[in-house]
Target: Isopropylmalate/isohomocitrate dehydrogenase
Amino acid sequence: AEKRVALVKGDGVGPEVIDGALSVLEAAGADLELVPVELGYGRWKRTGAAMADEDLELIKTCHCVLFGAITTPPDPEYRSVLLALRKGLDLYANIRPFSAPGLDFVIVRENTEGMYSGVEKLDEEEATTLRVITSRGSLRIAERACAIASKRGRLTIVHKSNVLKSDTLFLRICRETARRWDLPFDDMLVDAAGYNLVMNPKRFDVIVTTNLFGDILSDVAAGVVGGLGLCPSANLGDRYALFEPIHGSAPDIAGRGIANPIGAIRSAAMMLEWFGEAEKARMIEEAVGWAVASGIATPDLGGCSSTEEVTEAVAKRISV
Ligand code: NAI
Ligand code: MG
Model:
C-alpha cells in the first residue's frame, strides 16, 4: 500500500490514546494500511519476550510506526523495546515540538549514542557508563536540526563542553554545520538551558542536544507547556520513522478512560506531515488547539472530559 503503518498500541494507556489517534486520523480522511504489532509488557507476560526478531522484520515492511507506550517489565535482563526499535530502524533524530499559547519551540535530541550507547559495566565495587559521541552521529543530528531551524529561524546548541571532552566534539560539529547552513545560532550549557526553559522559554526556537540531555530537557519542556499528556514526538531516520506521545504507559490512570489523547493525536499529525500530508496535519493541529482553548480537557489539564470526549470533539471539529 501507499502508506503502511505498523501499529504498536503497547501497555497501560497506550491502547487508549492510540485509539483516540486512530479516530482522529479517520476523521481527517487519512488513507492508511495499519499493521498491528504487539510489543511490550503484555506480550512479555504472555510469551517471555517483549519483542522478537520477527517483529522487527515485520515492522521493516512498513513505512513507519505509530506507537503508544509500553511498560518496562520487572526483569533485570530486560532490554528496552524502544531502544531496540530506535537502533534497529536507525532512528537517530528525536524531534519534540512544544507549543502553548505564546510559546513554540522544538527540541532535536540525538537518539542513538551519547550516554545511551549501551557501553556499560556493573561490578560490586564500581559501575561505569561510557558516553560515546562520534563525528558521524553529531553531524547527522546537526544536519537535521539545521534543516528544521532553517524553516523556523534560530538554533541553540545545548552541551556541557566545559566539563565533558566528548561535548567539545559535539559542539564543534554543530557550530560548523550551522555556519554551513548560514543560520543564526548560539550555544548554552545544559544546566543554564534547564534554568532558561523554566524562566525564559520564549528565548528558544530550535534546540539541538545529545541523548541524555535531550531526554531530561524535553520532560522539563513538557512541564513548561502544560503537561506530558499534550506532547508528541517523531523519531526519524533516513528510511524509517516512529511517532509516539512522549509520555509513558501511565499505569496509575490506565483503564479509567481519562488519559489525555492529545500527545498521541499530535503524533499522528506529525506522521501525516512526514507522509507529505501537510494540510491534514494542519487540520488536526487546529482542531486540537481549539479543543484545548475551549476547555475540553482531561483531568491532567484540570478538565473533566474523558479520553473519548476529547477525541470526539477533535474529530468533529475536523469533519465540519
Ligand atoms: P508516565 O509518563 O507513564 O507517567 C508520568 C505521570 O504523567 C503519571 O502521573 C501519569 O498518570 C501522567 N500521564 C502520563 N501520560 C498521561 C496522559 N496521556 N494523560 C494523563 N496523564 C498522563 O511515566 P512513568 O510513570 O515514569 O512510567 C510508567 C511506565 O511507562 C514505566 O513502565 C516506564 O518504563 C514506561 N515509560 C514508557 C515510555 C514509552 O513507551 N515511550 C516513556 C516513559 C516511560
Ligand atoms: Mg524520557
Observations:
- The mean pLDDT is 95.
- The first strand starts at residue 4 and ends at 10.
